[in-house]
């Protein structure tokens, strides 16, 4: 702690502006910002072209990232999302979803500016609702944005086969699913909020619609035993 000079609370945009403007307070609190009040990221300022070129040199994909919502309705114990955007509360801190027209405006602009052939969403949970996913897919198709893409989903939410049909229509190449562990005990400890039947259904549906699947796992959780790890290996 003695090496930490500043702390900032959710969300970071206002706090970062304060720092850049010379505010030397050790604690800077941000506040919740609606997407309508946020400009698009200045990709020139952050030299986004460097990571786009790097990705292309490694795997042939010119990739950039986008955000379509904030606040995750699940509070997994290992995740920092609650700290970055605040703990979900239906009344005081609901999920903030971005207008799909604005999302596609930005995607279309960045694709043309940087000649992207792939993009991904950095939302903690892209599939916060079926409507959110489908509305984006409809707008992307309407714009004839052919670029492939991927997103991070939560297995408990993306259960409707209709959603997978729309993902496929909108040229979604891959879904990423945080499975984390094969142990019921560790699942309960971390508060992931999934069960194996629903998780398997997500992978099965994605396979049916020829959407690539990536699963994330974590080893070394508190109270994890060798037997818990073996259960994860079996999964």
From TrEMBL:
SUPFAM superfamilies: Radical SAM enzymes. The keyword Nucleotide-binding does not apply. GO terms for cellular component: cytosol. Keywords: Iron, Iron-sulfur, Metal-binding, S-adenosyl-L-methionine. InterPro entries: BchE-like, Elp3/MiaA/NifB-like_rSAM, rSAM, rSAM_horseshoe, rSAM_sf. Gene3D superfamilies: tm_1862 like domain. Residues 58-235 form the Radical SAM core domain. One of its GO terms (molecular function) is metal ion binding. Its cofactor is [4Fe-4S] cluster. This is Radical SAM core domain-containing protein.
């Amino acid at each position: 702690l003695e090496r930490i000079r500043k702390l900032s609370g959710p969300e970071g945009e206002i706090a970062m502006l304060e720092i850049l403007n010379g505010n030397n307070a050790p604690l800077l609190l941000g506040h919740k910002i609606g997407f309508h009040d946020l400009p698009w990221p200045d990709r020139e300022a952050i030299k986004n072209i460097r990571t786009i070129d790097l990705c292309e040199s490694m795997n042939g994909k010119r990739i950039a990232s986008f955000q379509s919502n904030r606040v995750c309705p699940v509070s997994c114990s290992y995740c920092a999302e609650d700290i970055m955007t605040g703990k979900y509360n239906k009344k005081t801190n609901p999920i903030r979803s971005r207008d799909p027209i604005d999302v596609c405006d930005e995607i279309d602009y960045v694709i043309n500016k940087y000649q992207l052939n792939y993009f991904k969403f950095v939302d903690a949970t892209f599939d916060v609702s079926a409507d959110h996913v489908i509305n984006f897919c409809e707008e992307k198709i309407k714009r004839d944005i052919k670029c492939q893409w991927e997103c991070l989903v939560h297995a408990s939410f993306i259960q409707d086969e209709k959603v997978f049909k729309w993902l496929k229509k909108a040229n979604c190449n891959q879904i990423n699913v945080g499975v984390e562990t094969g142990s019921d005990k560790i699942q309960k400890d971390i508060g992931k909020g999934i069960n194996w039947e629903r998780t398997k259904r997500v992978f099965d549906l994605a396979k049916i619609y020829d959407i690539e699947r990536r699963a994330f796992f974590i080893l070394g959780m508190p109270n994890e035993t060798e037997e818990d790890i073996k259960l994860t290996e079996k999964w």
